[in-house]
Amino acid sequence: MNTILTAIGALLTLLWGVAHLFPTKNVVKGFGDISKDNKHIITMEWINEGATLIFLGSLVIISLIVTGAPVQYINISVSVMLLVLSLISLFTGFKVKFLPFKLCPIIFTASAICLVIGSII
Questions:
Q1: pTM score of the predicted model
Q2: Residue 107, pLDDT above cutoff 90
Q3: What CA–CA distances, in Å, run from 86 to 2, 36, 40, 82, 91?
Q4: What is the distance in angstroms between the CA of the first residue and the CA of the last residue of the chain?
Q5: CB 8 within 8 A of CB 107
């Protein structure tokens, strides 16, 4: 069961990271008429979050494949980072009317819970 929960948490994180990359251009357009610098900053942040999520999910999956079992310290570290991202999203993006922003804290927290439970059972 711990391997399944770990895999679910990791895959959810990785796939949400991939999902961040596809709408980047439309997300930036959604901000309307803003300066080029602001467009670059938003693009950078959006891609950066996607890349971070892909890395976190991949790290857990690779450790799972290499060791054959969840690696506690990796899962806990990734969970802490996901909870930090969840808090940031909760106090910033959750206030935006765009649904994916509201999903971030839920997905990050659910992934972290799966990883923690997968580490301790």
A1: 0.86
A2: yes
A3: 23, 28, 23, 6, 9
A4: 8
A5: no
